[in-house]
Amino acid sequence: MASPATAGVSATPAAPKPRKSVTGTRRTVAALFLLPALVLLGALVVYPIGYSLIRSLYNADGSGFAGFDNYKAIFTDDSIRTALKNNVIWVVFAPTVSTALGLVFAVLTERVRWGTAFKLVVFMPMAISMLAAGIIFRLVYDQDPDKGVANAVWVGVHDTFAQSSAFPNAHPGRESPLRPDQGGFITEATVHTGRTVTLPLVGVAPDQMPDGAEKAVAAEPDPGKITGTTWQDFTRGKGVGRLGSPDPSELGYSGMRIEAVKNGVVVASTKAAADGTFTLPASADGARLRLPASNFKQPYNGVDWLGPSLVTPAIIGSYVWMWAGFAMVLIAAGLAGVPRELLEAARVDGATEWQVFRKITVPLLAPVLAVVTVTLMINVLKVFDLVYIIAPGSSQDDANVLALELYRKGFSEGQPGIASAIAVFLLLLVIPVMLFNVRRLRREERR
Q1: Cα separations (Å) of 416 from 50, 86, 201, 311?
Q2: pTM over 0.70
Q3: Are 178 and 199 within 8 A, CB to CB?
């Protein structure tokens, strides 16, 4: 029974005892645990930044104070200005294209049966180092179509619509009736009906002759027409064969185009048969025969991917190949959190898939797209490996970027003051982008 003193008074719960720290102390032990990380951070980040800032104010050998002269060089030196211009191109296009492709891949793989396998293939380049990727794309962009995949495909497509000549190296030999004319060859004398004409050439290797070429045959005269033969007037072996007439082992120039020219006007034309023989009508009487330049056109050798004009876009393409998978994975994670009810409601209301993508999916993914784009912008400001490895020496100046120019100034040209100024300038470029990313992440956490 409760005593009168306590009757009618409710018992108040005892205050909880403060929980004892697992480590026994708070700030001291926490500081001890953080100390190794702080030492490493200071040694690897703070000290290099501080030293670079101080070194950027001194001349090349560090003996004299240069003030802001090294920073002035960033905007006056031609090679640094080229690097700065290329960095702007990188920052604008590389993150944008990578993010756009990542968005497309992330959306489309949701509708593909083998979407997971496709994502794995697209993401796989992220497992390759920049060095290995640079070596791969240096071979991909090789000028020789027999080595470079890009030019092999490009030449294959080009030759499908514009076949190259089979006789790029053909030319008249000794005692030939032909002489050079506008990239091709023309007979010295005029031709007449009822007579045969010989148009011998040399310079084409036997294994380079057209597949349909047959043994050359001396043409028979035909009244009222002009007949003749064009062939490879060369037989292996010293003293073997006769000049000016087909021998048993010699092949005709199958498909060679022959034109009859009078006063600079083509009055008739034909193509040689598989055995090299050809026939022209009577209208060619009194004309001179010409083998036009189209017969000797050099084979198409593809695009100079690593030349001065295309080297930067080509290297950006290799970067996109590597980082589109990274963008796809992050965007796919954001896409998984998009409410499906909104998408289905839009479809029920009659919206097309393009309208759903443009007006619902993209706006909902805007925070993720911003994070991916900003992250890639920070990454491309530091790009070095791909440019250094892929760009050949002849076009490295045209592909130059700030990180590569920092390396060249500091180690190749012996100007550490300017190299330090470039490093500080790069840091100043990265800081605003990093702050934007941090602020955006904090804003997302508050939500």
Answers
A1: 14, 22, 62, 27
A2: yes
A3: yes
